[in-house]
Specification:
Blueprint: E1 6-7, E2 10-11, H1 12-22, H2 25-39, H3 44-61, H4 64-80, H5 84-101, H6 104-122, H7 125-142, H8 145-161, H9 165-182, H10 185-201, H11 205-222, H12 225-241, H13 245-262, H14 265-281, H15 285-301, H16 305-321, H17 325-468, H18 475-492, H19 495-508, H20 510-519, H21 525-535, H22 540-547, H23 551-565, H24 573-578
Helix pairs in contact: 2-3, 2-4, 3-4, 4-5, 5-6, 5-17, 6-7, 6-8, 7-8, 8-9, 8-10, 9-10, 10-11, 10-12, 11-12, 12-13, 13-14, 14-15, 14-16, 15-16, 16-17, 17-18, 17-19, 17-22, 22-23
């Protein structure tokens, strides 16, 4: 129990006494959960012990909600301890309990944690995506925008770890968009920092700094210290990449000060390792050794094996650079032993947890079997007294019921066959009618469009021919030619034809426009009309004649439309529009 530590001014002995004095089991359960939460950054092993006691109390009180919370807490703690398989096992138990309780929100949160662990534990992207899809589906069902955004952010994290920065950027942007709409400043800060990380990995440092600064502004506003420290560390790394050593260590120092304030040992060790690595980079081996030793001491005190291994490896490498091969070899052995121990510990934990789950399931099944045997014995005793009297009657009723069932089944089969036939006929007729109607509307639009093309082509031809006629001295002839030219020009730009055509388009292609706007909400009216023309298989020349514009202008419009729709070069625009 929390030996030698103090929580809110109370020793672990005082807390234990307070728990056992006058609290009910359910109250004790919640206190143990609170203790596990408050101590997990200070003493992880004790936090796990508190969570286990919460599980025991939940089993004693038969509180399904308590068991769900306690097993989820154990999953969180084992994850922090990098014991991923036990964490996954506890999350699975928690998910089963939340599902039986109908707590959809908590179930979705646990699915999100399972998705993350499935990837971290064995890089199983498929399994992780399945859990994220479940979480996303539940988030959509609940209309929980924060949950949806969190899931997008986690999917982005998977692609980021795979260095698939394009996909990661897409999901981070989606998460940022949702958080912006909901006004979640914490979520926005997280997404902005993550997008900054993408640009940092791509060595686009100015863009990365821009996103970090936006994230930091929100962090300071809401006093989100853990992310504040992370963002400061990231900015320091960029300053270092730009060769601004002094500025880099100023940012590292600011981040370290915040981490000390919140007393997060895990992040403290990670930041110390970062600073040690940076000192190594600049050849400051004495400083690097100092930070590695501090990180090693903190990791050893909290028994965090992965950090112990990493700090020992850093010390081994730095001592080697200084020519101190004796100490280098000593720390190299420590690093190797802890690396091997981590693998073995995870295997042992997995075996232990599986054995524990097996024993628990076995006990539950044995108890259920015993109860079932008692019920069966009582039923058998009652049935024996009635069996003789009911045997003949049962056979008689069985024959009648069998006959009725067979007849009903046959009748049902016949009816279902007739219904299927009728449904198929109706469906085929509806499909044929719909296709005929669509074909008729398309033909009507095509004929009208071709009419406009032919009319405009004839008028344009007449206009050209009139311009070729010599301007004679006859004033009346000149005036007549001018009036004819004006009349042709007016007919070429006649709005009534276009309005009628647009009306036909709107009425015939109403469904098409709705689908188009749903997929591409940023299209202009002219671009929507161009899509309709292309869906009718009109050529660029015909479209130019209808709109009284140049073929080049139509081609440029088509090019811009392809860019908005992000079509590959191999995709034909008209065919693509036909499938919308």
């Amino acid at each position: 129990m929390f030996s030698g530590s103090v929580l809110n001014g109370q020793s672990s002995l005082e807390i234990t006494t307070e728990i056992s004095d006058d609290k009910s089991d359910l109250e004790k359960l919640q206190i143990f959960l609170n203790l596990a939460e408050e101590t997990k950054y200070v003493d992880l092993e004790n936090a796990i012990s508190y969570a286990r006691q919460a599980v025991q109390l939940a089993n004693t009180t038969q509180s399904e909600e308590g068991r769900a919370k306690a097993t989820e807490a154990l999953g969180d703690l084992f994850q922090m301890n990098n014991n991923f398989q036990p964490a996954i096992n506890y999350y699975l138990i928690s998910a089963k309990l939340y599902n039986s309780l109908g707590n959809t929100k908590k179930l979705a949160e646990v699915y999100g944690k399972l998705g993350r662990l499935s990837y971290i534990d064995n890089y199983n992207l498929e399994s992780a995506m399945q859990y994220y899809e479940k979480a996303l589906s539940l988030g959509i069902e609940l209309n929980d925008q924060d949950l949806i955004a969190n899931t997008y952010n986690r999917i982005g994290g998977i692609f980021f770890r795979q260095k698939n920065y394009e996909e990661a950027h897409y999901y981070y942007k989606e998460a940022l968009s949702i958080w912006e709409r909901s006004g979640s400043e914490k979520g926005m800060a997280i997404a902005l920092n993550n997008i900054g990380e993408i640009y940092r990995m791509q060595e686009k440092y100015d863009s990365a700094l821009n996103y970090y600064e936006q994230s930091q502004s929100l962090n300071e506003k809401i006093n989100y210290k853990i992310l504040m420290a992370t963002t400061l560390e990231n900015i320091g790394l960029i300053k270092s990449e730009k060769g601004k050593k002094e500025e880099a260590f100023v940012y590292f120092a600011k981040a370290y000060k915040i981490i000390e304030e919140i007393n997060n040992k895990e992040r403290k060790v990670e930041l110390l390792l970062t600073m040690a690595g940076q000192h190594n980079r600049y050849g400051n081996f004495d400083e690097a050794l100092k930070y590695y030793k501090t990180a090693y001491a903190i990791a050893t005190s909290s028994s965090h094996w992965p950090h112990i291994a990493e700090a020992a490896q850093g010390l081994a490498n730095t001592y080697e650079k200084t020519g101190n091969y004796k100490d280098s070899y000593s720390y190299f052995k420590i690093s190797s032993s802890y690396g091997d121990s981590i693998d073995q510990r995870q295997k042992n934990n997995r075996i232990t947890e599986l054995q524990s789950r097996f024993k628990s399931d076995l006990q539950e099944k044995e108890l259920q079997i015993a109860k079932n045997e008692i019920v069966l014995f009582e039923n058998e005793r009652k049935l024996n007294t009635l069996k003789l009297n009911l045997l003949i009657l049962s056979v008689f009723f069985l024959v009648i019921i069998s006959f009725l069932i067979i007849n009903r089944y046959r009748s049902k089969i016949v009816k279902e066959r007739l219904i299927r036939q009728k449904d198929a006929e109706i469906h085929a007729a509806q499909k044929e009618l719909m296709e005929t109607e669509i074909h008729s509307k398309d033909n009507d639009l095509m004929n009208f469009a071709l009419h406009l093309v032919q009319k405009n082509e004839i008028l344009q031809h007449l206009q050209k021919e009139l311009k070729k006629l010599p301007c004679g001295s006859d004033e009346e002839t000149s005036r007549t030619l001018s009036e004819l030219n004006t009349a042709i020009q007016q007919n070429l730009s006649l709005k009534e034809d276009m309005e009628e055509f647009q009306h036909k388009l709107d009425s015939s292609y109403d469904d098409f426009f709705n689908r188009l706007r749903a997929r591409f909400p940023n299209l202009t009216k002219n671009e929507e009309r161009l899509c309709a023309f292309l869906r009718l298989n009109l050529t660029s020349k015909e479209i130019a004649v209808i709109n009284y514009t140049s073929v080049k202008a139509v081609e440029m419009s088509r090019y811009r439309l392809r860019k908005k729709m992000e079509l590959a070069n191999s995709e034909l625009l008209p065919e693509y529009l036909q499938n919308i």
